[in-house]
Amino acid sequence: MNNWRTVRRFLIIISIVFLCPVVGNAQSKIKHLNKKAITNGPYSAYLFTYFTGDKSGEAIRFALSNDGYNFRALNHNKPVLNSAKISSTGGVRDPHILRGADNKTFFMVATDMNTDKFGWGPDYAMVLLKSTDLIHWQSHIVNVAETFKEFAGVNRVWAPQTIYDPKAKKYMIYWSMRFGNEPDKIYYTYANKDFSGLETVPKQLFFKPDNGACIDGDIIYKDGKYHLFFKTEGTGAGIKIAVSDKLTEGYILIDKYVQQTKSPVEGAGVFKLNNSRDYILMYDRYTEGKYQFTRSSDLENFKTIDDDITMDFHPRHGTVMPITAKEAAALTRQWANTGDIMLSAANRQIKKNNMVLDTVAYKLQLMVNAGTDLRKFDPGFNIFPGIKVQPNTAQNFTKGAVKYTVTIGDKKPQVYNVTALETHNPIVNGYYADPEILYAEKDGKFYLYPTSDGFDGWSGNYFKAFSSTDLVSWKDEGVILDLPKDVSWAKKNAWAPCIIEKKVNGSYKYFYYFAAGQKIGVATADSPTGPFIDLGKPLIDKLPEDVKGGQQIDADVFSNPKTGKNYLYWGNGYMAGAELNEDMVSLKPNTTKILTPDKHYNEGTYVIYRKGIYYFMWSENDTRSPDYTVHYGTSDSPLGTIKVPQNNTVITKNGAAGIYGTGHNSVIQVPGKDEWYIVYHRFTYPKGIIMGDAAGYNREVCIDKLTFTADGAIEQVVPTHKGIGPVKLK
Fold this sequence. Notes:
Layout: H1 2-8, E1 45-52, E2 61-65, E3 70-73, H2 83-86, E4 92-99, E5 106-112, H3 115-118, E6 125-131, E7 138-143, H4 144-147, E8 154-165, E9 170-179, E10 185-190, E11 203-204, E12 213-222, E13 225-233, E14 238-244, E15 252-254, E16 266-272, E17 279-285, E18 290-296, E19 303-304, E20 310-311, E21 315-323, H5 325-335, H6 338-342, E22 356-358, E23 363-368, E24 387-390, E25 402-408, E26 414-422, E27 432-440, E28 445-452, E29 462-468, E30 475-482, H7 483-486, E31 495-504, E32 507-516, E33 519-525, E34 533-534, E35 556-559, E36 566-570, E37 576-579, E38 593-594, E39 601-610, E40 613-620, E41 629-635, E42 649-651, E43 663-669, E44 676-683, E45 699-706
Parallel strand pairs: 3-20, 23-26
Antiparallel strand pairs: 1-2, 1-21, 2-3, 4-5, 5-6, 6-7, 8-9, 9-10, 10-11, 12-13, 13-14, 14-15, 16-17, 17-18, 18-19, 22-23, 24-25, 25-26, 27-28, 28-29, 29-30, 31-32, 32-33, 33-34, 35-36, 36-37, 37-38, 39-40, 40-41, 41-42, 43-44, 44-45
């Protein structure tokens, strides 16, 4: 760690949280609209106001976008207003922003709430804010329970929003509110003339047919109708819509959920795309720490567009408002900085999570995908109004650093030295972990099966696959197993899969073992990419006999080349192994053995056979630890006693390169050759080492070469960014 601490004294490491499709060898065209702001029409950008879910995150933050798809945080993702000064609790959540009817004034409302200090209530107040420039805000606290004696018994005042009522010529504020243990309901009232308080007694806005709870209302006007989006609770949970031709009454429920996920959601926010007939519906997948974006032309049918969305922050329940180029320029002048502009590089060939910015020496290092043409390369910096970046055309990066000059408004320009380097680690863009790798004889390709990572608390609920012909360039094959849709016995914690290819009655069959809800299941398919059909029940759902603790996770399947018998290994805190029956979906009775090699064993067993030796590999320490490390032992049989050599480290951190948390591996042998590679995950680079426990579920997959000594010992692997070159199968 000492090397890294030294480096950190001089570097501020920043990375972008970005999920995007994996691209092939050819350099793809920069697919974004934010290179140049759209200018036809009154609005050319978007302001996203939000809070974050991290500690002390209950404060208003701003982000900008030119296209409604790619958002960049302003002010280093720090608050633009001091919650302690504008609220009674010291925290604000669920900010909603609105352009006034006069086109000169802006209004914000937010929940007055501080869960870090007071937990989940009771909450009595909201915050009202008004501005004429989006930078300076007047604020007022409104305690509903104190203001209206009729509501002295309320204990929730949540998620207020504002809309202009053209009939009343006033600003209507609506929010969800609860009395005692009754269901939450959506109420409304009107703000006074200077937007400092509420002038009428609140009334119920929407009457849900089942009188059930509804929260997080968001109203948008389209084609003469008011569309009220809200979250249902109690019987069923998700986002529904009610429609009326009047703002304050007559809402008729459209009785279907419109979210495009099985995960819990809240905080619906709708905005119209500039110069388009389409709308964006976004919402908070709050159990996963994720936001989902969908698009619609009719506000009835919605299509997920997550693969096209980028953000360098983790928002919670926010709203988006279209703004003009002049307004965007004022915001960048106030809160943008040159470093964030450098980190906005949007070319699809860039590994967005792996950009490294040195804010002392003004250097930016870009890592790019295999096959990128660096002789003519444009990073694609995000140019918001009021910002200039020169040069603005493709440059030759093969001769060293390229100088870029960044100017924000009338501030002093800053010059950065930008380098671009082709690296093969991580092997796929985005957050993935616990990699399993397979060479499929059916089609002569390699397949990668990881845990889908990047979800708070390891809460991912689906599995993907990737394919390659050379272990360097990978194709995203999409979701192959979705727990909410495809598995009846578990809906969460999709972890650590493994797979084996077998010939059954002359045809290839694939058996996919996976952890879900701390149990191990199995699904089958006729293709390496599915569709996979779950067995319908867990294969392993309890601890082995005499094992007192641990989890049923991290399965590994192994076929003994000497006998043709098949084995399954699993365990967290213990290593268990058993022979599989010929059906490959059940364990042979009385074959389960506890094989835990030593007291340091944690999880992630992987078994290979080479030159008469069975090698058992496993991970030690916690996956959240920088010292998460792979070790090994050997045996003379698949269920035999494991001998652990004195020097038994397979791979561990490389502090000099900023690589930490290297573990949970698989191994691939090039068919017909004594050529081996280790596939493992690491903390996301460079930000992982400063993320704390969150590094343990923000990981990425890498490959390096695995070698053996003449007497069969595994030589310790040094993890790299460079990775391996393309593997030739013939």
